[in-house]
Design goal:
four-stranded parallel sheet, SSR_resolvase, globular, 2 domains, 8 helices, Rossmann fold, DNA-binding, Transposon Tn552 DNA-invertase bin3, Arc Repressor Mutant, subunit A, alpha/beta, about 10% strand, single chain
C-alpha cells in the first residue's frame, strides 16, 4: 500500500466553468488503484498563468514521493516555456510525482515501486509531460488566435455584440432557487460554478430592486 499522499488538483479557466467537473473521474481512478485522495485543491484560474493559489498551496505542503493527480495535463499547464520550466522545477524540487488520467505512462507512479523502475518511469513521464504541456500551450494559443480573428471579422461585418447572456441558464437557475434548491443542488443540476449561480441571483435581485425604484 502506498504510504505517500495523493493530492487531487482540479482547475477551470473561468468562473463560469465548473472546476469540480472531473472530481468523480479522479475519485474513481484513485479507488481503482487502491489509494485514497488526501486532499482536494480546486480553483478557477487560467492554465496560461502561474498565479494559481491552490496549486501553489498544494506544492507547498507536498512532500517527496507525494502524488499530484490531475485529469489532464492541460489542467496543470498551458504555460509558456519559461513558466513551465519554473513549475516543473518546483515539482521536481519537492520530489512530487505527477499523475494525469490522459497520460497512461504516469499511472504506475501512483504507487511506489523499486528505485530503478521509479527512476525510469520518472524520466519517461517527464519527457511526456513536456510534450503534452507544449501541445496544450499551442492549443491555447491557436484558440485565442481563432477567437481574435472571429471577433475582428464580426466587428468588420457589424455583427459583434460582445459576450451574450445565457438567458436559458439564468431562467433555470432562478427557477431552481425559487423552488428552494440550495447552491450545491443547483450546481450539480446545471454544472456551473457557485460564483456564476451567485452572480445570476444577485443580478436578478438588482434588476427587481431597480424596477421597483
Amino acid at each position: 500500500m502506498n504510504s505517500n499522499r495523493i493530492y487531487a488538483y482540479l482547475r477551470a479557466s473561468t468562473k463560469d466553468q465548473n472546476a469540480e467537473r472531473a472530481r468523480q473521474d479522479l475519485q474513481e481512478f484513485a479507488t481503482s488503484n487502491g489509494v485514497a485522495i488526501s486532499a482536494w485543491f480546486i480553483e478557477n484560474e487560467s492554465g496560461a498563468s502561474l498565479a494559481r493559489p491552490e496549486l501553489m498551496k498544494l506544492l507547498d505542503i507536498a512532500q517527496s514521493g507525494d502524488v499530484l493527480l490531475v485529469e489532464q495535463v492541460d489542467r496543470l499547464s498551458r504555460l509558456n516555456a519559461e513558466d513551465w520550466e519554473k513549475l516543473t522545477g518546483m515539482i521536481k524540487g519537492k520530489g512530487v510525482r505527477v499523475v494525469a488520467l490522459d497520460l497512461p505512462t504516469s499511472h504506475m507512479m501512483v504507487n511506489s515501486g523499486d528505485e530503478f523502475t521509479t527512476r525510469m518511469m520518472q524520466a519517461l513521464n517527464s519527457m511526456m509531460l513536456d510534450m503534452l504541456a507544449a501541445i496544450a500551450r499551442k492549443d491555447h494559443q491557436d484558440r485565442k488566435r481563432r477567437q481574435a480573428q472571429g471577433i475582428k471579422l464580426a466587428k468588420a461585418e457589424g455583427k459583434f455584440k460582445g459576450r451574450q447572456i445565457d438567458t436559458g441558464l439564468h431562467e433555470r437557475v432562478l427557477k431552481l432557487r425559487d423552488a428552494g434548491w440550495s447552491y450545491t443542488e443547483i450546481q450539480k443540476a446545471t454544472n456551473v460554478a457557485r460564483t456564476t449561480i451567485s452572480r445570476i441571483i444577485k443580478t436578478n435581485l438588482k434588476n427587481i430592486h431597480d424596477n421597483i425604484i
